[in-house]
Amino acid sequence: MQESRFMRVAAAVGDLGSPFYREERQRDVWNEASAIGFQTMLWLAYVAASASLWIGGGAALPYGLTMVAVAGVGSTVTVAYSRRRGVEPLSGAWITAPRLVGFAVLYLMFVGGVLHAVWELGNSSFRHGLAIGIAVGTFVAILMVAWSLRKKQQAQSDDEA
User: Fold this and answer.
1) Residues 90 and 136 sit within 8 Å (Cβ to Cβ)
2) FRET pair for 102, CA 20 to 30 Å: which of 43, 51, 124, 130?
3) How far apart are CA 124 and CA 102, in angstroms?
4) What is the per-residue pLDDT across 82-91, written as a single tens digit (0 to 9) for each?
Protein backbone atom coordinates (compact mmCIF):
# COMPACT_ATOMS: atom_id res chain seq x y z
CA MET A 1 0.00 0.00 0.00
CA GLN A 2 1.39 3.39 -1.00
CA GLU A 3 1.59 6.03 1.72
CA SER A 4 -0.40 9.22 1.38
CA ARG A 5 1.20 12.48 0.36
CA PHE A 6 0.74 13.74 3.94
CA MET A 7 2.72 10.78 5.35
CA ARG A 8 5.50 11.20 2.75
CA VAL A 9 5.80 14.92 3.50
CA ALA A 10 5.74 14.25 7.26
CA ALA A 11 8.53 11.67 6.90
CA ALA A 12 10.59 14.16 4.89
CA VAL A 13 10.01 17.03 7.33
CA GLY A 14 10.85 14.79 10.28
CA ASP A 15 13.83 13.26 8.43
CA LEU A 16 12.52 9.86 9.49
CA GLY A 17 14.75 8.04 7.02
CA SER A 18 17.87 9.24 8.82
CA PRO A 19 20.30 6.57 10.09
CA PHE A 20 19.95 8.30 13.48
CA TYR A 21 16.61 6.53 13.99
CA ARG A 22 18.04 3.03 13.54
CA GLU A 23 19.40 2.84 17.09
CA GLU A 24 16.52 2.30 19.50
CA ARG A 25 17.80 4.27 22.51
CA GLN A 26 18.68 7.29 20.37
CA ARG A 27 15.23 7.13 18.80
CA ASP A 28 13.49 6.89 22.18
CA VAL A 29 15.47 9.75 23.71
CA TRP A 30 14.94 11.90 20.61
CA ASN A 31 11.20 11.18 20.68
CA GLU A 32 11.02 12.21 24.35
CA ALA A 33 13.10 15.32 23.71
CA SER A 34 10.91 16.22 20.73
CA ALA A 35 7.77 15.84 22.84
CA ILE A 36 9.22 18.06 25.56
CA GLY A 37 10.36 20.63 23.01
CA PHE A 38 7.00 20.60 21.22
CA GLN A 39 5.07 21.10 24.46
CA THR A 40 7.45 23.87 25.53
CA MET A 41 6.97 25.68 22.20
CA LEU A 42 3.21 25.19 22.38
CA TRP A 43 2.93 26.68 25.87
CA LEU A 44 5.42 29.49 25.13
CA ALA A 45 3.53 30.44 21.96
CA TYR A 46 0.46 31.17 24.10
CA VAL A 47 2.54 33.01 26.71
CA ALA A 48 4.26 35.14 24.04
CA ALA A 49 1.01 35.80 22.16
CA SER A 50 -0.80 36.79 25.35
CA ALA A 51 2.04 39.04 26.51
CA SER A 52 2.31 40.73 23.12
CA LEU A 53 -1.42 41.44 23.07
CA TRP A 54 -1.57 42.79 26.62
CA ILE A 55 1.57 44.91 26.11
CA GLY A 56 1.19 45.92 22.46
CA GLY A 57 -2.59 46.18 22.28
CA GLY A 58 -4.23 46.51 18.88
CA ALA A 59 -0.92 46.93 17.03
CA ALA A 60 0.17 43.47 18.21
CA LEU A 61 -3.03 41.71 17.17
CA PRO A 62 -1.71 40.28 13.87
CA TYR A 63 1.41 38.96 15.62
CA GLY A 64 -0.45 37.39 18.55
CA LEU A 65 -2.93 35.70 16.24
CA THR A 66 -0.09 34.48 14.00
CA MET A 67 1.78 32.94 16.95
CA VAL A 68 -1.32 31.03 18.03
CA ALA A 69 -2.08 30.01 14.43
CA VAL A 70 1.44 28.58 14.04
CA ALA A 71 1.05 26.64 17.29
CA GLY A 72 -2.37 25.44 16.11
CA VAL A 73 -1.06 24.21 12.75
CA GLY A 74 1.84 22.40 14.45
CA SER A 75 -0.56 20.78 16.91
CA THR A 76 -2.97 19.78 14.15
CA VAL A 77 -0.19 18.16 12.12
CA THR A 78 1.01 16.31 15.22
CA VAL A 79 -2.46 14.95 16.00
CA ALA A 80 -3.13 14.08 12.34
CA TYR A 81 0.14 12.16 12.04
CA SER A 82 -0.53 10.25 15.26
CA ARG A 83 -4.01 9.31 14.11
CA ARG A 84 -2.71 8.14 10.74
CA ARG A 85 -0.32 5.87 12.65
CA GLY A 86 -3.18 4.42 14.72
CA VAL A 87 -2.67 6.36 17.97
CA GLU A 88 -5.41 8.60 19.40
CA PRO A 89 -3.44 11.35 21.20
CA LEU A 90 -6.52 13.18 22.46
CA SER A 91 -8.09 10.24 24.26
CA GLY A 92 -9.44 11.26 27.65
CA ALA A 93 -7.11 8.81 29.38
CA TRP A 94 -4.07 10.96 28.54
CA ILE A 95 -5.46 14.34 29.56
CA THR A 96 -4.57 15.29 33.14
CA ALA A 97 -6.40 17.93 35.16
CA PRO A 98 -3.32 20.04 36.11
CA ARG A 99 -2.22 20.32 32.47
CA LEU A 100 -5.76 21.08 31.38
CA VAL A 101 -6.16 23.81 34.01
CA GLY A 102 -2.74 25.28 33.17
CA PHE A 103 -3.51 25.41 29.49
CA ALA A 104 -7.00 26.81 30.15
CA VAL A 105 -5.42 29.66 32.14
CA LEU A 106 -3.02 30.38 29.25
CA TYR A 107 -5.86 30.23 26.75
CA LEU A 108 -8.02 32.61 28.79
CA MET A 109 -5.05 35.00 29.12
CA PHE A 110 -4.78 34.92 25.33
CA VAL A 111 -8.53 35.48 24.85
CA GLY A 112 -8.38 38.38 27.30
CA GLY A 113 -5.41 39.79 25.39
CA VAL A 114 -7.29 39.53 22.09
CA LEU A 115 -10.31 41.29 23.56
CA HIS A 116 -8.03 43.96 25.07
CA ALA A 117 -6.34 44.48 21.69
CA VAL A 118 -9.62 44.50 19.79
CA TRP A 119 -11.04 47.10 22.17
CA GLU A 120 -8.22 49.45 21.16
CA LEU A 121 -9.12 49.15 17.48
CA GLY A 122 -12.21 51.29 17.92
CA ASN A 123 -15.74 50.74 16.71
CA SER A 124 -15.48 48.67 13.55
CA SER A 125 -17.10 45.62 12.01
CA PHE A 126 -13.74 43.82 12.24
CA ARG A 127 -13.60 44.47 15.97
CA HIS A 128 -17.13 43.20 16.50
CA GLY A 129 -16.65 40.14 14.29
CA LEU A 130 -13.38 39.18 15.97
CA ALA A 131 -14.83 39.66 19.45
CA ILE A 132 -17.84 37.51 18.57
CA GLY A 133 -15.59 34.86 17.01
CA ILE A 134 -13.36 34.74 20.09
CA ALA A 135 -16.38 34.54 22.40
CA VAL A 136 -18.06 31.77 20.40
CA GLY A 137 -14.78 29.89 19.95
CA THR A 138 -14.07 30.05 23.67
CA PHE A 139 -17.58 28.84 24.48
CA VAL A 140 -17.23 25.92 22.04
CA ALA A 141 -13.80 25.06 23.48
CA ILE A 142 -15.24 25.02 27.02
CA LEU A 143 -18.07 22.75 25.87
CA MET A 144 -15.60 20.39 24.16
CA VAL A 145 -13.42 20.19 27.27
CA ALA A 146 -16.46 19.55 29.47
CA TRP A 147 -17.65 16.84 27.06
CA SER A 148 -14.16 15.26 27.06
CA LEU A 149 -13.99 15.25 30.84
CA ARG A 150 -17.46 13.73 31.09
CA LYS A 151 -16.52 11.06 28.56
CA LYS A 152 -13.35 10.32 30.55
CA GLN A 153 -15.34 9.98 33.79
CA GLN A 154 -17.83 7.66 32.12
CA ALA A 155 -15.00 5.51 30.75
CA GLN A 156 -13.44 5.30 34.21
CA SER A 157 -16.82 4.36 35.73
CA ASP A 158 -17.31 1.65 33.10
CA ASP A 159 -13.81 0.29 33.80
CA GLU A 160 -14.49 0.13 37.54
CA ALA A 161 -17.82 -1.67 37.07
Assistant:
1) no
2) 130
3) 33
4) 889 888 876 6
- Cα–Cα distance measured from residue 161 to residue 45, given in angstroms and rounded to the nearest whole number: 41
CA-nearest of 5, 78, 2, 66 to 39 is 78
In contact, 71 and 133? CB cutoff 8 Å? no
pTM exceeds 0.90 for this model = no
- d(C-alpha 66, C-alpha 71), whole Å: 9
Rounded CA separation 66/84 (Å): 27
Total count of residues recorded for the chain: 161
Domain ranges (residues) in the chain: 5-160
Contact 110, 49 (CB under 8 A): yes
Q: What average pLDDT score do residues 131-142 get? A: 82
Distances (CA, A) of 55 to 41, 59, 115: 20, 10, 13
